[in-house]
Amino acid sequence: MNISNAKIYHITHINNLDNIIRNRAVYSDARLSKMDINTEVVGMESIKYRRLHEIKVKCYPHTTVGQYVPFNFCPRSIMLYILHKSNHENIKYSGGQAPILHLQADFHNAVEWAEKNNVKWAYTDINASTFYANFYNKLNNINENINWQAVNSKHWQDKEIKERKQAEFLFYDLFPLELIEKIGVFSKEQKLLVSKKVNNIDVSIETSWYY
Fold first, then answer.
1. Where are the chain's structural domains?
2. Which of these is catalytic: 31, 163, 164, 168?
3. Does 11 belong to an annotated binding site?
4. Which residues are noted in the entry as NAD(+)-binding (predicted)?
5. CB neighbours of 185 closer than 8 A, spacing ≥ 6?
6. Strands 25-27 and 174-176
């Protein structure tokens, strides 16, 4: 995969799907924090705080990472592995990977929609939670900035590969539901539950997207 056919993936707990459908959008952590919406939190609180309050999106320096909806350029992310193991001391969630959904969108469609509607977007070369990530809001040189081999690697013990695999796409404030083209799920049970809730979105069992 490279930029010509890139897909982007946002993971969320199935319990959050009703709110996403009701709001017709995936909300950023910043927006969620200002609203009275109950969500199933599956991330690390310390990292969420850092993204909300400390890490600036350098191409839009008046904004922080937590004001954006985050996506990876691959399914089966490193974060999903951590959730699968259910043993990280900084994560309260312990429900494993089965209830986690992959919301897939087309990278080009997302950028085109953002440009048309004057919405900020950016991508990074590594995990946006780090203070040394590079942020870009232009498509030129993206194939040089993102290591696609690392992004798609299933083996990430190597430190460089692990960092580069976690490149992110960031979409300011909220990501419209209309841009979600597919929901990847872990099992038949999850597919049945999700299919009852969504219309006009493909719901597919994608075992290769999980551990």
1. 3-209
2. 168
3. yes
4. 10-12, 51
5. 101, 102, 191, 194, 203, 204, 205, 206
6. antiparallel
| 206 tagged catalytic | no
User: Which tens digit of pLDDT belongs to each residue from 4-56?
Assistant: 789 999 999 999 999 999 999 999 999 999 998 889 999 899 999 999 999 99
Q: Check the annotation: does 63 bind a ligand.
A: no
31 in a known ligand binding site: no
Q: State how far the Cα of 29 lies from the Cα of 170, in Å rounded to an integer.
A: 12
In this structure, what token pair is assigned to residue 135? 């942020």
How many CB atoms lie under 10 A from the CB of residue 85?
13
> Catalytic site residue 178?
no
